[in-house]
Design goal:
Helices cover 55% and strands 14% of the residues. By secondary structure, it is α+β, with helices and mostly antiparallel strands. Strand 2, helix 3 and strand 3 form a beta-alpha-beta unit. It is globular, with a radius of gyration of 12 Å.
């Protein structure tokens, strides 16, 4: 499951439709440009407080992905705790992949 999730996120990142990092995801949530948030399985309490709470308050789905090291490595980045998906179709695809 996490492999498919990160593969889809990688495609979105290359297309410029994914925001990586807590600061970028929070900004996207505030601009209402994010359709879905993926948090690392080991996201810190501070990240959960800053990102997950804001996302839920705005009615944005929050998914749990792999640990931060793995999430970052699969996106070609250092450890990543939060990823925001700005493409509606990609967000639906991620949520559907988790249901399967």
């Amino acid at each position: 499951m996490s492999e498919r999730l990160t593969r889809l996120l990688g495609l979105g990142l290359r297309a410029g439709r994914v925001v990586v990092g807590v600061t970028g995801v929070r900004a996207g949530l505030q601009r209402e440009s994010v359709h879905c948030v993926v948090l690392a399985a080991d996201a810190s309490a501070r990240t959960l407080d800053k990102v997950a709470r804001l996302a839920r308050a705005r009615g944005i789905p929050v998914l749990r992905g792999p640990v931060a090291d793995e999430l970052g490595a699969r996106l070609g980045r250092p450890p990543v705790q939060a990823v925001g998906v700005e493409d509606g179709a990609l967000a639906r695809g991620l949520m559907t992949s988790l249901e399967e």
